[in-house]
Specification:
Blueprint: no helix or strand
């Protein structure tokens, strides 16, 4: 198995990563 895969970006301020730039 490859462990060199890019780490997922954790949600900030309890907001899902799907909202990203959404305030």
């Amino acid at each position: 198995m490859k462990l060199a895969r890019p780490r997922p970006v954790p949600p900030r301020k309890g907001r899902p990563a799907a909202l990203g730039a959404s305030p």
